[in-house]
From TrEMBL:
Residues 210-248 form the MYND-type domain. Keywords: Metal-binding, Zinc, Zinc-finger. The keyword Metal-binding applies. GO terms for molecular function: zinc ion binding. It comes from Zostera marina (Eelgrass). It holds the Pfam family PDCD2_C. Transmembrane segments: none annotated. This is Programmed cell death protein 2. PANTHER family: PCDC2 PROGRAMMED CELL DEATH PROTEIN 2 -RELATED (PTHR12298), PROGRAMMED CELL DEATH PROTEIN 2 (PTHR12298:SF4). One of its GO terms (cellular component) is cytoplasm. It comes from the Eukaryota.
Amino acid sequence: MFIWSSYDYMSQIATERYSSIRVYDLSLQKPMDPNVDDLNSHGISPIEGDDNDGEGDCEMVVEEDENEDREPVTLGFVEKPKNPTSLLRHFFPSKAGGVPAWLDPLNLPGVKSRSCGFCENPLQFLLQIYAPISENESAFHRVLYVFMCPSMSCLLKDQHEQWKCRTDGFSPRSVKVFRYQLPRDNVFYSRDPPKYDGSDKPSGPGAPLCCWCGTWKGDKVCGSCKTARYCSENHQVVHWRSGHKTVCQRIILSSKDDSNPTDTNLQMKNIVACNTLWPEYEIVHEDECLSDDNDGDEVLKDNGSIASSIVSSKPNAEDDEEFNALENKFEADDDNKSWATFQVCIGKDPEQVLRYCRDVKGAAPLWPVSAGKPSKQDIPKCCHCSNPMFYEFQILPQLLYYFDLKNEADSVDWATVVVYTCSASCKPDRTGFTHEFPWVQIQP
Ligand SMILES: [Zn+2]
Ligand SMILES: [Zn+2]
Ligand SMILES: [Zn+2]
Ligand SMILES: [Zn+2]
């Protein structure tokens, strides 16, 4: 199991100290056995410290009994997948682009959930993060999936609808977040973590997927070959035009000719035909490193205030010349000021694509634009259990850069996507998942 944050890491140890736990980190690709006593006597040392090989000397030790404001934000970065199988579902990956690794491979969202609320096309997979809550039995495995319609005109409509969610219940959206979670004992995965020795296998096949997008359940079958499956008419049409027309004939012929009947059928399996999915990356994580190499001592001493200032989006950065310069430059304009603040905070780790803050005390999103922030009242309650929803993570515009999206017509462009989730992380019903709440700010 991949522990998203050191917080989860510690609560894992606290709740499971009597069982034979194995905590492991995907970036190591091998299990490691933490020595509980050792960890307790030294405070929390983030697990990332172990795979840094000393390269970024930004280890941050958080004392268990000190002010919780000291907890750093966890940052997500993208990396090319280590190997073609490292992002499969039984490795519990956090990933961006490509196709989702469904935690529950059978109960996938139905037509209404998986379609854009405006153009009704199937949504495209943006990212998923593996974020278990070890003190919540039903969330031993927990994955948040973010999907988005790739059309900017839909996202502009979504801008208006997100304000109405509180009062309207379900407004149409072009950005959707699903939460899946499973207890440790479940029908899909072993109680024990993967071994990473080549013997790990998926637990049986999942639901047949659309052979165009590879993302959603393939409920519909091609009427001619009875082999190709689709999530929607739209994907059937684009697949037909982009080559299935020919392949379909071949499948029909080869099924009449017994000499090699399954060859073409096999070829269709697990191959995603669509070439417009966003490029696939693994998301790796690291606690926010607040020290600059030049003034390491001072920053170490000051970690607390800087950490809390960064998460509260009001940096206490009077000493920071860069910040002051930017602030003066944009003094008259709130949005520009907000943008400058945002840039300075992000600038400390310019490649971050995600900021994760569940259970980080006082954490609030960094808003790049001062207008268009939701108030507390604009955030709906959990649609499943009615508990309040809290900020859990935000996606940064840097991801657009890695997706190479900047120059295409009508391609999505956002300043940030903030995700609010059920504070109780309630157990989903029989559908296997529940909706969480995204808030999108677009570029000024
Ligand atoms: Zn749309
Ligand atoms: Zn599809
Ligand atoms: Zn066909
Ligand atoms: Zn809930």
